[in-house]
Amino acid sequence: MRIKAVETLRPYERNARTHSKKQIRQIAKSIERFGFCNPVLVDDDRQIIAGHGRVESAKILGMETVPIGRPQMPEIGRAGGRPLPTASHGPGPQGGQEATDQGRAREQEGSHG
Description:
Layout: E1 2-5, H1 21-34, E2 40-42, E3 48-50, H2 52-60, E4 65-69, H3 74-77, H4 85-88, H5 97-112
Parallel strand pairs: 2-4
Antiparallel strand pairs: 1-4, 2-3
Helix pairs in contact: 1-2
């Protein structure tokens, strides 16, 4: 696990998961209390694969750095690899409707391509 500056991380534009302001505050409280239990997963280009909510929470806490990790699947870390967000944490119980709609659209894309 490594530490990277928050400002150097790029969000994945097609992230299937959305977080409300309330959820971001809840994550921030958890980070304050317990620290980072899981690193933010990024690809070789520092694009966020999983952990968008943790990064946003770190920003509101005024944190300049966050722990990052890279998946152990070579096809994920390479540019052009299939992004992990769909597989790693599709819409969870607190994900927004947008997450559900985008997740379904991605599943359909995968079955046709």
